[in-house]
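Quarterly update from the structural biology core.
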Amino acid sequence: MRSETSNNTKIVATLGPASWHRDVMMDMIKAGVNVFRVNFSHGDHETHRRTIRLIKEINQEFNCKIAILADLQGPKLRIGDVKEGTVIKEGDTLTFTTDKIGGTAEHVYINYKQFPGDVKTGERILLDDGKLLCEVVETNRKDKVVTRVLQGGPLKSKKGVNLPNTRVSLPCLTDKDLADVVVAMEEGVEWIGLSFVRDAQDVKELRNIIKKFGSYAKIVSKIEKPEAVVDIDQIIHATDAVMVARGDLGVEIPYSSVPMVQKMIVEKCHIKAKPCIIATQMMESMIESQSPSRAEVNDVANSVCDGADAVMLSGETSVGKYPVKVVETMASIVAHVESTFDVKPNTDNEPSIKNERYITKTICYNAAKIADQVGAAAILTLTFSGYTALKIAGHRPTTKIVVFTANRQIMNQMSLVWGVEAFYYDGMESTDQTFDDIKNILKENNVVCAGDLVVKIASMPIEEKGFTNMLKIAAV
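Predicted structure, tokenized:
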């Protein structure tokens, strides 16, 4: 079973009560899903294990290549239960406490023990995705923080708290995250989403944990804190992919800054050949409606034009009424934009630093250029790590990028990368025999036809699995 679309920009869909059923998931794959996101912020380990195993069963039974993104909750700050119907008004005094109490318009519990010690007078506190706004009046630095309400409204249970001015002392990986990582590693997911990244050190900590499991899983760093935007160059260098998580980011920084931050991050990811996902509220009206708003269509289209590797659906597919319809709609928007607009990086990004990867980078750069020049049907590459596929995709050729690997986890990982289609192949006895086998696989899957030109890159001798050092143009 293959997706009925062949878009370059991939679609990530979040699973939940509306969609974690086998038939619905299969219909979503046919509609264009490339990656399923399992959100560890909700649900228990048993549910997550069952969902991940179901995705793997579908992959195996129907020869699919759907990647799994296990998204960690991170140090998400929340208030506790609040009496139903509670409303706070501008000018009111609202006290936050680390003691577990029932919430009212005067007092509310917060699940962040270090909160009184971290905040300072004058700093702002946002609740419920910025709908409510308070300013710190005083703190006893122990268990209570007194605030003045600047923007009021209904105060509801379990709502998120954002501290745009405060340096939070919580670790990026909480105890819950560490337990969730074990589940993700045991189930063999391809991608791990790291929430509320602040700097490159957070990424390195998760990397060390993944290495201890001997896993090939790669890291998606979620950019949703002001500190992450400041340290974005180092984070991109340290991570494997980036998600512009515009929900919390749009609360933590001025909302008017989010569009330009998004464009800046996508461009920097192109330069480093790191996949970039645009997420949050992309088609949110379709949680209830069968049609998107015109603003949402523009949002998806602009993300494609910016050159994002993937666009993501959250509540639209996890709890929405029309999980398959929303995927079909997003896929059709992506297809139309790609048919009328060539995505090209703003910088040519020709290799310049002569390090150990210089030859590989140069071959990938020229493979993208030559393929476009000769009108090749595909760029073919063998990979043992996914590196060459990422480098070629970073140059955004108009030619399809086809990857062959003997590692199924890496094969599935490629489902997040712009313009890449991956196949499993474990022959690799000789260069000529390998490429003969590959061409047969491509013809069987209707990727190329007899007479098409292809650009082939590989490492020679192939059995040594070394750095890519060969480029060849051939006819099928």
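The domain at 358-475 is CATH 3.40.1380.20 (Pyruvate Kinase; Chain: A, domain 1).
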